[in-house]
Design goal:
homodimer; mainly alpha; Arc Repressor Mutant, subunit A; three-stranded antiparallel β-sheet; 6 helices; 3 strands; globular; DNA-binding
Chain lengths: 146, 146
DNA sequence: CCCAGATACTTAACATGTGTAGTATTGTTC
DNA sequence: GAACAATACTACACATGTTAAGTATCTGGG
């Protein structure tokens, strides 16, 4: 069978772990998990209420995970929810003032870590690698589960 | 702040999800999670008893996760454990006969999925991408948390 | 208007990720 | 050789991944 360490899934997993090791300590300092941060990032990027389903898509999280994370973030007053008019099933999420403050505190440190990664691997190479990853994702996502 | 979707961690995450979507259904057919399969794969690759710590390193799992997964696999009689001589703290894990059979049933399907991925993205490009990922992992792993 | 189906989200159950603490064993130092 | 640190693993707590089921709401055909 194919060598274990050389497989694509393991290569992707190991690369991601290596990258995340630069971010996790920063997030831990602010009592944030990676997934909580992804949601705050997404909310901050739009700066307009986002529905739960769209949030799940944007962050590559599953709906049940988003539900739990949102109840956590809501308990910490980092987000606010409001029901959508004309459709009582949906609820739209937005950052609270406290949430905005938190994002603004974390963002510079996150940027610094990213810059470290760019320096270590090479900015140009990193850009190309990410482009390749996007292409791989796209190729593999085309009608395979139909 | 840096665009959310274009970040390295998200690109790696999405690529891995896209790739794993080819394998997960196969594993599910055999009542295996991705992590359980990784451990069986590693045990199969060596065909000699492996200590728990080494198993964690090889599979990029954390020791507590390995402990839990092993107790699950042991309950299904897929693995066997024996204590190491001269060091009663360690225990060495190996595949049982049933475990070997299972690996031999799953492996061909896994190979087929891998071939599909190679075809979709291009065998050559995939090889290069994996090499780049290995280099990234190596660069980012060098003395950052000291 | 009603009701079957679709949709949006939540809940539940089990497995794993992650960090911390605990236990047992081994190694080391004085 | 007894106290101490280091090692290997396990236990625990909380958060998330994953799948399935549940609830509320909306939509469209009769």
């Amino acid at each position: 069978m194919r060598s274990f360490d050389e497989s694509l899934p393991m290569a992707l997993l190991n690369a991601r772990e290596a990258a995340m090791s630069y971010f996790r300590p920063i997030l831990a300092d602010h009592d944030l998990t990676e997934q909580q941060w992804r949601i705050l990032r997404a909310l901050s990027a739009y700066d307009a209420p986002i529905e739960v389903g769209d949030l799940a898509t944007q962050t590559s999280l599953l709906a049940p995970s988003v539900t739990r994370i949102l109840s956590n973030l809501e308990g910490r007053n980092l987000i606010e929810r409001q029901t959508v008019e004309h459709d009582q099933r949906r609820s739209a999420i937005s950052l609270s003032a406290t949430g905005h403050e938190l994002v603004h505190r974390v963002a510079p440190q996150s940027e610094a870590a990213y810059n470290t990664i760019e320096t270590k691997f090479g900015k140009n190479k990193l850009t190309k690698l990410i482009a390749e990853l996007h292409e791989l994702t796209k190729q593999l996502s085309t009608n395979q589960d139909l």
